[in-house]
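Attaching the record inline, Q. Sequence:
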Amino acid sequence: MSALAEKEEKLFDCRVAFASTLEALAADNTAIVTVVNDSVGSSKLGGFQKRWPERLVNVGIAEQNMVGVGAGLANGGRVPFVSAAGCFLTARALEQIKADVCYTNTNVKLVGQSSGVAYGELGPTHHSIEDMAWLRALPNLRIIVPSDPWETSEAVRLAASVDGPFYLRISRFPVPAIARSEGAQFRLGVAETLKTGHDAAIIANGVMVHRALEAAAKLAGQGINARVINMSSIAPLDIEAIVSAAGTGAVVTVEEGSVRGGLGGAVAEVMAEHCPARLKIMGFPEFAPTGSISFLYSHFNLTADGIAASVRGVLEAGNDT
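Structure, as predicted:
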């Protein structure tokens, strides 16, 4: 999609969906609290703080302490949503996430805001492209990467209702609402097939899902019928959907994260064990340079045209064998 088209299309900030849903849930459930690291504004929790100032704990720029406080609140019967920029939450507090939340299977809801390269102009220190690789290795942690406001809201509702650790990866980059069939349901560990296809499969999540759909539309115009799968649930993972996708013979994964250990790594693990097929992993192969989000997406070919080109490349490689 061109920059002009993105401006004309109605776009949404998933952080707003997160905050509004959490407020609605908190109005009915007094156990819900929030813990932040001077991130009230960037987490869009100003409304929550105004309504229930006693239910928002701001620990300041102290992410390790923030996760510990969240674990303590959970042990006291609260349902804490610990919200901070993903780059700081997962990197600085990884030990606390491992020991205080996952190892103890504590009911803490971690919310990594502004994921991926959302802080583009601030460079690699503020990018969060390694979080999936770090967190996927931790047992007991459910990991969800929502694609749009509806899925964000559904993920928040699920996290609040299910006991145990969650990590919600929330983008600040505006995205369109994904077109879904009436009665669509969000289910943990179940991938969502947004477009059927038998020539190839594109598996994406987060802000890359609508781009994958655009790529599939471009490919259709070239006679290639590509399946599009929204793999928002990283842990647990929908193994059956991956095996089915591999049945097309050509799979491309697309994520706003490192090409090592994230969505692509998870898909590669399944395919290597169950269903070897041609695979291309799209994402960030290295530290991303400083620049706007749109520049970074284009620089690493994370665009509809770039995704379509990768699908064609995988298919052509298969034809050469």
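The first strand starts at residue 32 and ends at 36. The chain has 13 helices and twelve strands.

More tomorrow.
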